[in-house]
């Protein structure tokens, strides 16, 4: 049977980086005697992604996300460990492997800058040996899905960032890759376009069963697209599982929003509030608190008892807050 | 090899370069200046007589042909490939099931066509104004064409290996500027090689630069002996082989280095 998943075993990468002190003397010395330091970018990683899955790779800047993606696409040779993508070792960069993957880099374009996107699409069709009629029908399909017909004949340099990203997606999907790597696909785009692209990626995944691995700083991307996340921090895999489970990893908290019927300062924190409660913000009649889950009920009662409460909402913290706490703490 | 894809890429690159034709026309004009200056200096020096066996008309012919050969063989691969390595666009190349040589060739061939659109009419105009004298045989004409083709191959492969240095050296383009100066001196541009004195001529005959520009022009314009032509072709092919070998080896090593350190 054909191997149809992504399997990563003990994958790691250490960069050999030249180091030097500031100043002229040090710069001369480094010419003759460069000093190198080994920087572990990715520590041994293990995970398996099944065919058709959509997985997010998250972590703060410098966590090793892009390094991992580059190793999975064959752009970077691992320092050790094994990668098996649908039966291929990416480092060998075999044409059959390259035909079955695609990578979208949010900050670098593969479109030819001075000619209309349509011309670039046809070049790609030739590169991937897609017959002309087939290429036309695939381009039409993708163009319909992304609602971008009107931009097909303008030179790429005249397009907006969002329009360019649409072109980028068409260019990357023309050869129907089995695995799609998206590195920050919505970087710098407005909410409207972000939504449209998310919807598109989801639909594409349903239609063709493509496996998608994406990195993003926008939680909305991840909440909408991926049921599973891999959280990397300092090159280590901290979490692999359901997105909803992430909140449980750290000490669970609740957020409480209170609207008061009259302005009533609670600063500094009154002693009738439970120990874990923290005032996040206070503005006119609006009060925003964070409290450990186990004390949430007590906190709510205390607020109702001591303040002229007009409205009160208890909610789960937004994912951003959770992630942010993980990034700051560095460990769980 | 994926020839269809390569051809399509060449075509598209040409479309995109045509958008900039005026820029390339200016560039091509810039490249014509040094040989044209040499043309006027030498033809003035020759006056009504001759200089080192060259008459005024022969100087004009030599340089007009040289301008054309220089444009045909000028390799921009060294600039384009170097930029691609520095700017990190190389990742896109490496993700495509298409040999990198096509990416390099596409800008090379695309540029060539754009330049020639400019250079041929200008060359013809100069020929009408300056009245070159030419005496050549059909055999020499064919040999000169063959030598021009090899010269382009040599300049391309030579430029390619220099460009690949960008994998290791951040500003490898400084080597390219140096190489352009060496071409100016030793390729027959500042003066036809047969006019160079003693050891300078010997050096020029051994270095690769004469075989990038001057040699095909000499076959056509200058009455080279059969032995000299044979020697020229041998040197040209030897340098071509060396350049191709260097390019291949450095490319493989460069990609290995690139995938070790990341783009």
Please provide a written account of the structure:
Chain A is an alpha/beta fold and 332 residues long. Chain A folds into 2 domains: 243 residues, Rossmann fold (3-Layer(aba) Sandwich), CATH 3.40.50; 78 residues, Malonyl-CoA ACP transacylase, ACP-binding (Alpha-Beta Plaits), CATH 3.30.70.250. Chain A has 11 helices and 13 strands. In chain A, the strands form 3 sheets. Chain A has a 6-stranded mixed sheet with strand order 5-6-7-3-8-9, sandwiched between helices. The longest helix of chain A is centred in the middle third of the chain and has 18 residues. Chain A is globular, with a radius of gyration of 25 Å. Chain B has one domain. A two-stranded antiparallel sheet of chain B has the order 1-2. In chain B, α7 packs parallel to α11. The two termini of chain B are 25 Å apart. Chains A and B meet through α2, α3, β5 and α4 of A and α1, α5 and α11 of B.
Number of domains as seen in the coordinates of chain A:
2
**Full CATH superfamily name of the largest domain in chain A:** P-loop containing nucleotide triphosphate hydrolases
In total, how many beta strands of chain B?
A: 2
Helix and strand element order of chain B: HHEEHHHHHHHHH
Percent range for helical residues of chain B? over 70%
- How far the N terminus sits from the C terminus of chain A, by CA atoms, comes to 40 Å
Provide a short characterization of the protein structure:
Chain A is of the alpha/beta class. Chain A has helices spanning 24-32, 65-73, 95-100, 117-127, 132-146, 161-173, 191-208, 219-225, 246-249, 296-306, 319-329, and strands spanning 5-19, 35-50, 54-58, 80-85, 101-105, 179-183, 211-215, 228-233, 236-242, 253-260, 278-283, 286-292, 309-315. Chain A has a 6-stranded mixed β-sheet with strand order 5-6-7-3-8-9, with helices on both faces.
């Amino acid at each position: 049977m054909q191997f149809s998943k992504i399997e990563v075993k003990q994958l790691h990468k250490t960069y050999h980086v030249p180091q030097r002190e500031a100043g002229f003397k040090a710069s001369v010395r480094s010419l003759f005697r460069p000093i190198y330091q080994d920087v572990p970018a990715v520590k041994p990683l293990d995970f398996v992604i099944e065919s058709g899955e959509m997985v997010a790779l998250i972590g703060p800047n410098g966590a090793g996300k892009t390094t991992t993606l580059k190793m999975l696409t064959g752009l970077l040779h691992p320092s050790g460990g094994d990668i098996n993508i649908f039966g291929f070792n990416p480092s060998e960069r075999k044409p059959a492997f390259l035909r079955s993957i695609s990578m979208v880099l949010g900050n670098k374009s593969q479109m030819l800058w001075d000619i209309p996107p349509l011309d670039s699409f046809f070049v790609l069709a030739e590169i991937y040996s897609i017959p002309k009629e087939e290429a036309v029908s695939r381009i039409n399909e993708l163009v319909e899905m992304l609602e971008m017909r009107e931009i097909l004949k303008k030179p790429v340099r005249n397009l907006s960032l969002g329009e360019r990203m649409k072109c980028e997606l068409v260019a990357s999907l023309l050869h129907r890759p089995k695995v799609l790597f998206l590195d920050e696909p919505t970087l710098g785009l407005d909410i409207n376009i972000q939504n449209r692209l998310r919807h598109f990626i989801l639909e594409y995944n349903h239609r063709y069963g493509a496996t998608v691995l994406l990195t993003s700083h926008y939680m909305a991307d991840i909440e909408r697209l991926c049921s599973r996340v891999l959280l990397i921090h300092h090159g280590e895999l901290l979490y692999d599982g359901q997105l909803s489970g992430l909140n449980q990893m750290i000490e669970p908290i609740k957020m409480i929003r209170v609207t008061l019927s009259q302005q009533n300062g609670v600063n500094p924190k009154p002693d009738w509030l439970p120990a874990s409660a923290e005032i996040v913000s206070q503005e006119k009649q609006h009060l925003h608190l964070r409290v450990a889950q186990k004390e949430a009920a007590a906190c709510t009662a205390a607020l109702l008892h001591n303040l002229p409460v007009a409205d009160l909402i208890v909610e789960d913290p937004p994912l951003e807050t959770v992630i942010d706490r993980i990034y700051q703490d560095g460990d769980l | 090899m994926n020839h269809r894809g390569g051809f399509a890429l060449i075509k598209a690159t040409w479309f995109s370069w045509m958008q900039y034709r005026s820029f390339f026309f200016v560039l091509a004009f810039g490249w014509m200046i040094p040989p044209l200056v040499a043309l006027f200096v030498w033809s003035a020096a020759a006056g009504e007589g001759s200089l080192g066996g060259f008459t005024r008309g022969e100087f004009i012919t030599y340089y007009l042909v040289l301008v054309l050969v220089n444009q045909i063989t000028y390799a921009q691969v060294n600039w384009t490939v170097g930029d691609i390595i520095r700017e990190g666009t190389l990742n896109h190349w490496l993700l495509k099931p298409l040999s990198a040589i096509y990416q390099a060739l596409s800008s090379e061939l695309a540029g060539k066509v754009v330049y020639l659109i400019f250079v041929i009419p200008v060359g013809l105009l100069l020929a009408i104004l300056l009245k070159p004298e030419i005496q050549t045989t059909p055999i020499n004409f064919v040999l000169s064409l063959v030598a021009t083709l090899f010269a382009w191959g040599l300049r391309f492969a030579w430029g390619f290996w220099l460009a690949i240095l960008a994998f290791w050296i951040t500003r490898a383009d400084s080597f390219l500027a140096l190489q352009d100066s060496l071409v100016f001196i030793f390729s027959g541009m500042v003066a036809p090689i047969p006019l160079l004195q003693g050891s300078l001529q010997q050096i020029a005959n051994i270095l690769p630069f004469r075989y990038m520009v001057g040699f095909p022009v000499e076959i056509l314009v200058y009455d080279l002996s059969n032995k000299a032509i044979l020697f020229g072709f041998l040197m040209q092919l030897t340098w071509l082989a060396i350049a191709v070998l260097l390019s291949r080896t450095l490319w493989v090593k460069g990609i290995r280095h690139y995938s070790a350190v990341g783009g």
